[in-house]
Amino acid sequence: MSSTDQPTSKSDASSAAEESRGGVLGWLAAVRARLGLQGSQTLRDTLEYALREEQADSAGAFSAEERSMLLRLLRFGASRVEDIMVPRADIIAIDETEPLSELLKQFEDAGVSRIPVFSETLDDPRGMVHIKDLFGSIVEQARVAAAVAKATEGPAMSGQPANDVSVAAPAEPDDAAPALDFSDIDLSRSIASTKIKRSVLFVPPSMPAMNLLIRMQSTRIHMALVVDEYGGTDGLVTIEDLVEQIVGDIEDEHDEAEDAHLSQDAKHGLVASARMPVSELEAHLGVVLLTPEEAEEIDTLGGLMFSILGRVPGRGEIVRHPSGVEFEVLDADPRRVKKLKIHKPKAAGEATQGGTS
User: Are 216 and 225 in contact (CB under 8 A)?
Assistant: First the structure.
């Protein structure tokens, strides 16, 4: 056996690993130097800067969609669960004492595939129901009812007593499943009386979003309730919420065709959800609504309304922003704003530097 055929020793493997690591670090240092970045920059900072620099180069290695996804992935890596969760006030949930008919109605109204279940309040969660399990339970009831009907009708149709097996004619083989009978399905049963509930994950607000995604993949549980230090429910996250942070909004055949945040209403004009990010409305109107300091604290239009007034505005109230934009509250409850009508500033074409302070 020649020297080139000898197995690699541990020291050789270690040296190769060090050489590879050194090569990666050397390449990273070269990239940083080429971009004019300081050595204290993290790998994430370096990659994000490189992607943004490439955006100005029409002959870049990535398409616009690829750059956008890579940038979202980098931001996702720095996100926490509380940055992504649906807030408690917006959670669609149901009490376990409600009948199956009400659960069906909630699925239809909400257009979701999973609904969390609680006992009395959201602070006492009991799991979740997947729409597939609900329909599976209904179909199983129908299948049992059809089987019972077929068993009881068979002897009667043969003209023999049901318990007279000695004189009954041999039954012809029939492999066909009986037609399902939905006429006697009991939808008045409570959710708690069934076996359709699944487990959910319980996670803290500070948990890294990437860690939650990995945990959902490993446990195959795709809904998590965000709980505070006292055990109260703060919010909810699904695996779709996490994936959308990377690939962008996922719209299926059940989603509304119009923009979820902003729409043109024939009656009210420009209407926005209070959950719309302020940055999106700024881009749409060409008006700056937040100073850099405010942008660190305020994310949504609902938060902006509260910041201006120091309270939750009531329905019909008009909130004026220093930039000239006016917000008319179309829908609200004592806890939060839901929908706003946007009155554009008179000089809509001019970007106005303004703030809420």
Answer: no
Q: Classify burial at 340, counting beta carbons within 10 Å of its beta carbon; exposed 0-12, middle 13-18, buried 19 or more.
A: buried
Rounded distance, CA 112 to CA 105, Å? 11
Contact 238, 92 (CB under 8 A): no
Decide the pairing of beta strands 86-87 and 233-238. antiparallel
pLDDT tens-digit map of 263-274: 876 666 889 988
| pTM of the complete model beyond 0.70 | no
Helix (H) or strand (E) holding 328: strand 326-332
The order of strands in the sheet holding 337-343 is 262-265, 269-273, 337-343, 326-332, 318-320
Of 78, 96, 123, at which residue does a domain stop?
78
In a domain, 353, yes or no: no
Domain residues for the domain of 274 are 262-343
Whole-number Å distance between alpha carbons of 324 and 352: 8
Residues 323, 289: Cα–Cα separation, whole Å:
7
To which residue do tokens 């934009």 refer?
Answer: 325
What is the tally of structural domains in the chain? 2
Using the 3D structure, point to which of 78, 98, 125 is the last residue of a domain: 78
